[in-house]
Amino acid sequence: MEDEAGSDGWIEVAVEADLPERRAIRAQVEGMDVFLFRTADRIFAIDNRCTHQQGPLHRGVVKADIPQPTVTCPVHGSMFWMTDGRVVRGPASRPQPVYDVRVTEGIVEVRPR
């Protein structure tokens, strides 16, 4: 029997047409709080709650026009790479969980890496 996410683990989080370009949004689905950010050619998805003290990353500063796009937590300034969740600057010491992203028939889907 398939779980709610399907046997392959993909979970629907947004309609692609509703995902704004160059503005972070928060999607909540199946107990997950996901940060989504869309550029012209990519959609990033990471856990929305900072690993330091659970700050809302969708309210942080995103720098997407650099070789390694980052998001900065608005609470204490921890900075993470959006590609792999790596900590660029603390106080966070643990990386952000990152999701694989795909678009299927106009629906944005994610699954934990």
Features:
113 residues; mainly beta; Rieske Iron-sulfur Protein; 3-stranded antiparallel β-sheet; 10 strands
Spell out the helices and strands N to C: EEEEEEEEEE
* Main sheet attributes: strand count, strand direction, barrel closure: 4 strands, antiparallel
By secondary-structure content and strand pairing, the structural class works out as: mainly beta
Task: Report the average pLDDT across residues.
Answer: 93
Strand composition percent:
35-45%
| CATH topology tier name | Rieske Iron-sulfur Protein
Strand order of the largest sheet: 5-6-7-8
Would you identify the CATH H-level superfamily? Answer: Rieske [2Fe-2S] iron-sulphur domain
Q: Please tell me how large the radius of gyration is.
A: 14 Å
Secondary structure tally: strands: 10
Proportion of residues in helical segments: under 10%
CATH class, named Mainly Beta
Task: Tell me the CATH architecture.
Answer: 3-layer Sandwich
How many domains?
Answer: 1
Which descriptor suits the 3D outline? globular
In the predicted model, the low-confidence regions spanning at least 5 consecutive residues are none
* Distance, first to last CA: 22 Å
Number of helices: 0
Molecular structure report:
The protein is 0% helix and 41% strand. The strands form three sheets. A four-stranded antiparallel sheet has the order 5-6-7-8, with no helix packed on it. Strands 1-10-9 form a three-stranded antiparallel sheet, with no helix packed on it. It has a three-stranded antiparallel sheet with strand order 2-3-4, with no helix packed on it. It starts with 10 loop residues before the first strand and ends with a strand. The chain is built from no helices and ten strands. The chain is mainly beta. It has strands spanning 11-15, 25-29, 32-38, 43-47, 61-63, 70-72, 79-81, 87-89, 99-104, 107-112. The protein is globular. The model has no long low-confidence stretch (mean pLDDT 93). It has one domain (11-112): Rieske [2Fe-2S] iron-sulphur domain (Rieske Iron-sulfur Protein, 3-layer Sandwich).
